Structure formats: structure tokens, C-alpha cells
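To: structure desk
From: M.T.
Subject: fold request, one chain
Message: Could you run this one when you get a chance? Sequence is below, nothing fancy, just the single chain.
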Amino acid sequence: MEMLTDYVDFADICYTTTQCVNPCFTNCRRTCLLCLDKQNYQSQQRTYDCEKRCGAYVCHYLFRFFNEMSFLYREVKPLNCSVNVLSLGCGPCSELFSLVKVLENEYEDYSINFMGIDLSDKWKLFHDEIDRLLTAHQKPINTGFVIGDVHIVLDHLNEVEFDILVLNYFL
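Reply: Done. C-alpha cells follow.
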């Protein structure tokens, strides 16, 4: 999937050209890999507060979650070719890329309305890139990204209808 590899290439550029602004959890020598492992598996802190760490996350974990979500979507098979997704803690939106792949394999024509909410404004750069890629690759997908606390954002929305609810690191 060309769009996915374009996204990872973008993340790699962010990862390799951006300075880390975080205090190191470990002695990772600013590669962010050990810090990501500690953050994801040994800490309750799930906030991505640095574009370098976001880029590192995409480069090192996106394909894993892409595959996991692809498997899930294939198992639950969306009932139709028009899908509304609400992703809480959306971060890099690996679930969106997975859904595109599954729907493209199942339907000639499809559409996705994707709303993602994340606490960290450091993902905005990546959300903007997703929108750019969707346009460049002419995908029938509407996105809406909101940066903020899920509890507050959802309280201010009138009504949200969705077929798929994704909870990323929400518990």
C-alpha cells in the first residue's frame, strides 16, 4: 500500500531530522527506542509530547498495529462499504490505514468518515500529513481530527454516530 509507505517515509523524516525535547527515560542516546519501550510497556505515561518520539513510534510500531487491525477488520467485516469510525486516542491512526486496505480489497467503491481525538498536539503534524496523502492518493475518506481530552471533547459534540469505535491506550 503506497499511501502507508509514504506515511512511514514522512515519519522517518520527522524522526531523523527533529531534535528530541524529552528528558530521557533511559539512556537511549536520543533514538527514542528504549524510551518508547519503557513508555509503552513499563509506564502509565502515554502522552507523546515530542515529534521525534511520534516519528519513532510510527516507524517502529505502525506496521504491527496495521496488521493487527487489518486482521480484526477482516474478522468482523464491515456490513457495508460506507463506514463511520470514531478513534479515541488516535495518535498515528494505524486503524485508518488498516480499514482502507480491507475495504479496498472488499469493495470497488467505499467511503470512510473518520473522526480521531487525541490528547497530544504533537500528532497534528502527522494528521495533516494523513490528510495530504488522502488527497494525493484520491481516497474517498473524510477526516476530522481534534486535539484535546476525550471526555471534554465528547461532552461538546452534539451527537457522534459511528460503526466502529477504536480505543487506543484508553484504559
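Reply (cont.): The mean pLDDT is 86. Let me know if you need anything else for the meeting.
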